[in-house]
Amino acid sequence: MRGSKGGTLEGGVREPTIVRWPGKIAKGSRCDAIAGNIDFLPTFVSLAGGMVPAKPKIDGRDISGLLLGKTAESPHEAWFYYKGTQLKAVRQGSWKLALSPQSLGMGIKERPEDLVVKKARLYNLDEEIGEVTNVAAENPEVVRRLQALAEKMRADIGDGKAGPGVRPAGQVENPVMLYPAEARKSGRKAAKGQAGKPFDWDTLKLGDVIAPDSAPKVAGQAISIRCAASSASPDGVLLAHGGSAVGYAIYLQKGELVFAVRTGGSEIRRARIKVQLNREMMVQADLFRTGRMMISTSHSGESLTIEGVKLITRHPQEDFCVGHDNKNPVDPEALQARWKGSLKGLKVVVGNAAKK
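Predicted structure:
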């Protein structure tokens, strides 16, 4: 198998699962039907004698029949391979259709030619688990069938920029632990000194990373960001603090400077303005307590204000990154390119010190 964690090739998603239940599950039995951890909830409810409510609709299925040896058939019509919010592939039986270019996974920079082709690619996993030989041309009816399944799923829960579908991902407001727990202490070093220690804004430079417990405490706070910067590239991340749950980022996208804020959940608010490349600009971005966010630059004189924006609900658990984003992006629309230019005087002010 090819692939590793973070990719949707079989090597990145397959996980051997061992289940032991003396007197219920036959010793030494084996099953290779398609199932996943999303099936645990309905399965445990079924084994406990309960029923999963019809609403809200969930994707998991009861696989107790597989565990107890009552069937060898998966309850799933098909299996859908999502990477974040993007639908990358769909499988039915031995057939797997890659819908868009894939990667080998986290930390692997190699991009084999067969994985970057934009056309759909069909694999027969029973004949070749490595997902190399594209057999789409020889099996057009299988391609059409799997593409129809993919379109059905896109209409249901969406596919990245195509929208959230009719059934967006569920979000829990202000989630809390079910049992007492202590926050795990970070063993990573901040950009300047140990994690959890203060740092000097005047010494920050492109490429620096600040651990979450040293980063600005932005939960429920107004935020004011200032810096002088220039870029030779129309795309690149200036700063990023947070990830797919909460956070904020400033980045270039096709020559537009974007201030993106994820306040909690799937909602992302963006303010964007046109900028001139290869020219230093004073960047100013603010998230106000009054429900406004704003971005402006000095050289263009342009500014944009967005109304009705909430404050960030909780402190991001991801690093504060300068000139790049090292993990899941705050905004999936941001191209994860490094900032190619200069950066001076970066500072993030929160709370009472920020503008009201």
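Summary: Helices lie at 10-13, 40-47, 64-67, 113-116, 140-157.
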